[in-house]
């Protein structure tokens, strides 16, 4: 039996063989090399710390969105509460370093472990759901996390938030925009490389087969539950680690990092850049992280604009920006 994966874009989407969605190693690493080159030369074009700050935030968001795209775009499992995992990582770093004097690295690892355990526990019951019921379940999970972070004020600072110490490792403190840029740029390249290799691995092909048809996947021996749980946990842990990085970089964290609106931002980044596209995740994160800066004079309208972008994308570019351009210019690379 030949398994095919379905392109995102509605119920009338055309099935595409898995082999057609796989890039050659040359094409894959060519795109990775271009990304690394752009990140290497970009500091030459950044005139001041404000631009460094924007690019660092883009890179952190891109890391989260890559993990979320593995869950949504490649496996077909929606998550409307993913910012909750981001919040767990951020608050783990903040609370454990501030109240319990843990080292930043230990706090980050503990936050990622706690997130992974929580994701594993809830994954099996949640991922049995389909469609809008799955969306509502993940939304509820995110809201619960946000409420807990807000109400446990004795540790989290409540709605006012909590300060976070600088990230120190073996006596070395990550400080300054240039240092942070170098760290997140390296992590973004590594995240992209890992995602591309995962997608083209047997496990990655199983995830794409699940997206195409769970029934067909089970018929040929794919343990769909196990693969869905694994990718859910992986995407949650990636979000937690990025949340810790963001908390240490900004130096302050509030419950908004785990809020519903932030989850919608992440989903919009995935859809706009391109589901089932690793490089689309980066493009979507860049566009929608820059957008609030462009709209800074129109305070309060960001939510409306995000909604309009998502609506127009689904109407005119249902596959997302990068897959649409790739199809138009006949490039099969991711």
TrEMBL record:
It is found in: Cell membrane. It is a multi-pass membrane protein. Pfam families: BPD_transp_2. Keywords: Cell membrane, Membrane, Transmembrane, Transmembrane helix. The chain crosses the membrane at residues 29-48, 54-71, 102-122, 179-199, 231-250, 270-291, 303-322. It comes from the Bacteria. Its main location: membrane. InterPro entries: ABC_transp_permease (IPR001851), LivM-like (IPR043428). PANTHER family: BRANCHED AMINO ACID TRANSPORT SYSTEM PERMEASE, HIGH-AFFINITY BRANCHED-CHAIN AMINO ACID TRANSPORT SYSTEM PERMEASE. This is Branched-chain amino acid ABC transporter permease. It comes from Undibacterium arcticum.
């Amino acid at each position: 039996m030949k398994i095919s994966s379905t392109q995102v874009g509605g119920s009338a989407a055309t099935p595409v063989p898995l082999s057609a969605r796989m890039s050659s190693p040359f094409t894959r690493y060519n795109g990775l090399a271009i990304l690394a080159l752009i990140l290497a030369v970009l500091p030459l074009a950044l005139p001041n710390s404000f631009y460094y700050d924007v690019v660092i935030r883009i890179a952190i968001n891109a890391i989260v969105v890559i993990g979320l795209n593995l869950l949504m775009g490649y496996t077909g499992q929606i998550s409307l509460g993913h910012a909750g995992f981001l919040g767990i990582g951020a608050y783990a770093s903040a609370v454990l370093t501030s109240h319990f004097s843990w080292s930043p690295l230990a706090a980050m690892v503990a936050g990622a472990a706690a997130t992974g355990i929580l994701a594993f526990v809830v994954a099996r019951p949640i991922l049995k759901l389909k469609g809008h019921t799955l969306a509502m379940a993940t939304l509820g999970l995110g809201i619960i996390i946000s409420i807990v972070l807000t109400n446990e004020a004795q540790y989290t600072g409540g709605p006012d938030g909590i300060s976070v110490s600088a990230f120190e490792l073996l006596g070395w403190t990550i400080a300054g925009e240039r240092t942070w840029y170098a760290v997140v740029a390296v992590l973004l390249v590594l995240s992209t490389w890992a995602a591309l290799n995962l997608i083209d691995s047997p496990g990655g092909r199983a995830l794409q087969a699940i997206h195409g048809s769970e029934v067909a996947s089970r018929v040929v021996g794919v343990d769909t539950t196990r693969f869905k749980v694994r990718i859910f946990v992986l995407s949650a842990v990636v979000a937690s680690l990025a949340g810790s990085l963001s908390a240490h970089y900004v130096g302050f964290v509030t419950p908004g990092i785990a809020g519903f609106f932030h989850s919608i931002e992440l989903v919009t980044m995935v859809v706009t850049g391109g589901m089932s596209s690793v490089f689309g995740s980066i493009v979507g994160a860049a566009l929608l992280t820059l957008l609030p800066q462009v709209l800074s004079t129109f305070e309060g309208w960001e939510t409306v604009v995000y909604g309009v972008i998502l609506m127009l994308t689904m109407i005119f570019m249902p596959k997302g920006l990068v897959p649409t351009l790739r199809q138009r210019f006949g490039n099969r690379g991711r």
